[in-house]
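Please fill in the sequence for the structure shown.

STRUCTURE ENCODING:
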């Protein structure tokens, strides 16, 4: 499973019609199986408390509506969304949208009745108010909202900040919705690793972000302050949860991480976990013009690399040479992503192996019906030549890994 996250308002001219068959076919060339359309449900805009213009997709003001600016004919915006769902399904791809259980906009209103709030907001989310789950009516209203979008053909929900709402509510909600739509996918944004097992086995989520585990480890390594041994420690900590993690390097909350090839190599190929790709990541978008290197979710902006990517999709021209090289590298790695079977960490038996830098190299095996493979990632700027000891093998296996890169050997 490979998810492509995108903000439709920053794609092409910013309308849903721009996500056409050519775009969807392009996503498939990356191995994508599902598209997460971020910012579909109507959010507040033009209010004093709104952050940016048109504002945050996470300040929802009407759960039964689509943002008018996403359609060239705002009166037909719901029909345009349903047409997008159909196009996506016709290409064999799944549709994921956001569900934000913790808060709504201060001016929330829908045709089915308002959602009761606590009258305050968390953190600096001053464009929201926290939902009051002590009111049972809110449970039922939220259930009906998800059933509404499921009836429109949505295949899954990325659930925002679920640790901030009662887990018993989320467990009830998932069970209620899946009783009618059993194939729906629920993806949780959970940051506390010690709670992962509960949110999978008790609450019932299908996938969790491994943000506080693998993502943070890889980010530190790319910034030159990490320890590659933590990859092993996280792998050991997760154990049977590996296939339920959603690995990623970028999303709308995190800074861009261009040219992070060894991190991509590990995140994509370490285990059976699904992977998420953030639009523009595949051409090296760096958000270099922002202070925090994040692509804004608050403003309608022009991202030159995304504009060039859109042109490339439709004309096979427009990308700069470095962007094209980055895209081709992503495609080659994505082609390697199908399930390779079991993962076997080799760090523990190579701590003293010549050429192996335990803090900045990582080595592992994958074994399946496809064969046995040795994989290595190198988080240094020097080529790595490692003579790997593998238990049960009569001789060591030599692997060379390029600087800031990875390599695969079929044994």
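FILLED IN BY: designer on duty
SEQUENCE:
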């Amino acid at each position: 499973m490979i998810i492509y996250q995108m903000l439709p308002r920053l794609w092409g001219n910013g309308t849903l019609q721009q996500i056409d068959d050519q775009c969807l076919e392009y996503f498939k060339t990356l191995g994508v199986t599902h598209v997460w359309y971020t910012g579909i449900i109507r959010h507040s805009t033009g209010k004093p408390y709104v952050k940016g213009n048109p504002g945050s997709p996470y300040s929802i003001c009407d759960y039964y509506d689509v943002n008018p600016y996403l359609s060239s004919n705002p009166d037909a915006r719901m029909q345009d969304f349903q047409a997008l769902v159909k196009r996506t399904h016709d290409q064999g791809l799944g549709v994921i949208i956001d569900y934000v259980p913790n808060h709504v906009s201060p001016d929330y209103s829908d045709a089915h009745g308002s959602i009761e709030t606590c009258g305050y907001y968390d953190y600096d989310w001053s464009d929201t108010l926290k939902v009051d789950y002590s009111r049972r009516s809110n449970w039922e209203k939220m259930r009906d909202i998800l059933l509404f979008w499921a009836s429109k053909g949505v295949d899954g929900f990325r659930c925002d900040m679920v640790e901030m709402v009662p887990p018993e509510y989320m467990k009830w909600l998932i069970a209620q919705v899946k009783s009618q739509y059993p194939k729906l996918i629920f993806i949780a944004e959970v940051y506390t690793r010690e709670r992962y097992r509960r949110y999978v086995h008790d609450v019932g989520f299908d996938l969790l972000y491994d943000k506080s585990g693998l993502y943070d480890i890889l980010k530190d390594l790319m910034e030159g302050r990490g320890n590659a041994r933590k990859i092993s420690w996280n792998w050991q900590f997760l154990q049977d949860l590996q296939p339920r993690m959603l690995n990623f390097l970028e999303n709308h909350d995190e800074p861009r991480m261009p040219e992070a090839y060894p991190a991509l190599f590990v995140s994509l190929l370490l285990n059976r976990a699904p992977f998420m790709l953030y639009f523009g990541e595949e051409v090296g978008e760096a958000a270099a013009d922002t202070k925090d290197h994040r692509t804004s979710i608050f403003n309608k902006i022009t991202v030159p690399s995304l504009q060039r990517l859109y042109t490339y999709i439709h004309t096979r021209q427009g990308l700069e040479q470095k962007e094209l090289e980055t895209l081709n590298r992503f495609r080659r790695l994505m082609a390697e992503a199908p399930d390779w079977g079991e993962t076997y960490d080799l760090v523990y038996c190579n701590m003293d192996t010549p050429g192996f830098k335990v803090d900045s190299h990582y080595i592992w095996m994958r074994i399946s019906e496809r064969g046995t493979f040795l994989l290595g990632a190198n988080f240094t700027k020097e080529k790595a030549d490692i003579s790997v000891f593998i238990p049960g093998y009569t001789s060591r296996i030599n692997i060379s890994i390029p600087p800031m890169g990875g390599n695969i050997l079929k044994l």
